[in-house]
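Renewal narrative, Specific Aim 1. Our central claim is that a sequence can be written position by position from structural information alone. The example that follows is taken directly from our test logs and has not been curated for this report. It begins with the structure tokens describing the chain, in the order in which they were read.
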């Protein structure tokens, strides 16, 4: 979620309620963690994990509590691992691709479908994959 602007993040948090009841949220490709920080500030019961390349995380500020520009092959590999690790009601997500491209990644990783759960400004916003 690293590329989301403050405006997009604020809009997502206004219209999307899919974070309710989430215990742990992993932001893959979360950059410096600004978006994840805003989410855990609104939902303090969420344990937020910012997952990115070591050289990116190294420069990220510490906040208490990956996939947007990777190749399709790398995203599918990562999503397959997410799929294996998720409980039956788990929801991975992503951004910076058109919906058709997310369908391809979703199916390639073994998920059965996806839903654009919330739109922010003109971007796709929050996409939930179905196991």
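The sequence written for that structure reads:
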């Amino acid at each position: 979620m690293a590329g989301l602007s403050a405006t997009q993040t604020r809009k997502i948090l206004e219209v999307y309620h899919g974070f309710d009841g989430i215990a742990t949220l992993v932001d893959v490709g979360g950059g410096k963690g600004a978006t994840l920080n805003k989410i855990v500030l609104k939902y303090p019961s969420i344990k937020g994990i910012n997952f990115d390349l070591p050289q990116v995380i190294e420069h990220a500020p510490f906040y208490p509590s990956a996939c947007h520009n990777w190749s399709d092959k790398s995203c599918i590999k990562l999503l397959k691992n997410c799929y294996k690790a998720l409980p039956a009601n788990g929801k991975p997500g992503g951004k910076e691709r058109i919906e058709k491209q997310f369908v391809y990644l979703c199916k390639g990783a073994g998920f059965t479908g996806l839903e654009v759960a919330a739109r922010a400004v003109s971007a796709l916003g929050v996409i939930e994959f179905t196991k």
